[in-house]
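Lecture 7 notes: from sequence to structure.
We start with the chain below.
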Amino acid sequence: MEQKEVPKENKEEILKGKIDFIKWFSELNKDSGSIAGGKGANLSEIFNLKIPVPPGFVVTAQAYDYFIKKAKIEGKIKELLERINYEDTEQLNKITGEIRGIIEKAEFPEKMKEDILEAYEALGAEDSGIKDRSAHYILKKSPEAPFVAVRSSATTEDLPEASFAGQQDTFLNVKGNSELLENIKKCFSSLFTPRATYYRNQKKFKHEEASLAVIVQKMIDSDKSGVIFSKDPSMKKDHVIIEAVFGLGEGIVSGKITPDRYYISRELEIQNKEIGKKKIAITRDSGGKKEVVKLKEEISEKQVLKENEIKKLTEIALKLEEHYKKPQDIEFAIENNEIYIVQTRPITTLEKRVESVKELQGEVILKGLAASPGIASGKIKIVENFDDLKKVSQGDVLVTKMTNPDMVVTMQKSAAIVTDEGGLTAHAAIVSREMGIPAVVGTQEATTKLKEGEIITVNGFTGKVY
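Predicted structure tokens for the same chain:
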């Protein structure tokens, strides 16, 4: 059999058969973290449990390492990292920006590029029954290039003891070869966002040991989406909590929309519903661009999920919790009444949960969702943009529309956090629970109602501000 000519650059490694650039979900499981990163290993595990997962493949962590090595940029990255002073936010932003630039400008090795594009083509053809054949069997006809989500899956992310929530990037609605390759490189470079770099340093993970896989997965064009907690993440209660919004899931995780919240018993009884005022939905147009749609009042106050969807999602959550033997935080999407599970990971804050709600005396000036337990008082500092972060000192209360990952350093100084928007899985909620800082989210009017410099008390058990 004739040997296909392999570019000299990587003949050595490939002949020894050492490197798999691509793996399909069906070939991996929950122990594949070193190949597929935390998210990739998890998705593969639940895919193989026959839970409905959008089809996809993984560009392996070994492919990332190979890419960095072949581009000969290791030394330069190491040298830049050694210059960082982690408490100087501006310098951290500047240097990590330089590192990302270096990675994004590097070229893909030829064989790696071929393997990625071949897998992408197979994903487009996979409706033609290809996914039951071997991964190498590619149909001859060329189908329409599919819209995919390209997400980073760091080998240090979603470890039970440190949920690197949203430390790396996700790119949605990617279509076509060049856009796919470009976004895979952006995922590679997201290993060095200011927050991921700061976080690794803080958690004492070594930068050079952090590696990253990339998940390429068919996009679900969701009519509704949301999050399920198989146990309450802040109270010691056994109910399942589901939060849901209309449109794409980004609205809920970024905290731009205050979701519906449903409480369901383990016997699938719906115990309570809080219907959120969902003023907007994030959707995508036929070209894949994100659009923010304003919802009419009667829709914005409508219940997002049907009763049978609530029960079905609860069943899936309990099945995943049973399988992993740990309470799970699960993202879902619903398209044309089909439920898809987009991600599952352990809830990282269980040991910080509290037994009972502590009520305070005093005048309640604001109410929102209790997102992270605890009580703290401090001076109000209202943050509207990146420059306002400088005015937050140790022990102040950070008040903002919604926190974002660039605020992590400032959040650590704060006594408490209050936001206008968001639910239990918005960035502010996850990071606050992790840091043990009281937080109230989704108050709708904190930034307009509270006055800069006044002293307030935040009750993260009840969602009240005094």
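Points to note: The first strand starts at residue 22 and ends at 24. The chain has three domains: 8-218, 224-351, 357-465.
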